[in-house]
Amino acid sequence: MATILSRRYVLIHSSACICFRSDPSECTWSGRWMGANTAHNIYCRYDNIGTCGSIDCSINHFTLKAQNSSDIYGDRCDRIDLFGLKGKATCGYIAWFDDKGEVVNSWYKTR
To answer: Per the domain annotation, does 17 fall within a domain?
Structure first.
């Protein structure tokens, strides 16, 4: 018997393990992202140009309205530079670093 905790996680009672479901939509660059430290909604669009592609993002929040673009780069096509920060992405998550290499924010993919 399984209890569904959310659309991503399923807890199996018999073995008490958490199993992760895969959602391919969370592994795309395009879509809506949420800033963990700022609660900003960020809307991004991916374009298939160049080696890894490019991304165009906008923020429309009462404290910040901004738009920025970046080529996607890196050996794994997981690096971007937006809004003055350097980002490293994994599926559904982007960690943002300042010039000192310290994490200053993160974005999570939302629906």
So the answer is: no
Evaluate if residue 96 carries a pLDDT over 70.
Answer: yes
Could you give phi then psi for residue 26, rounded to 5 degrees?
-80, -10
Task: Give the model's pLDDT for residue 74.
Answer: 97
How, if at all, do strands 64-71 and 79-82 pair? unpaired
| CA neighbor of 35 nearest in space, from 59, 56, 54 | 59
- Helix, strand, coil: what percent of the chain each, to 5? 5, 55, 40
- Counting the structural domains of the chain, the total is 1
56 within domain boundaries: yes
Confidence of residue 24 (pLDDT cuts 50, 70, 90): low
- pTM, full prediction: 0.76
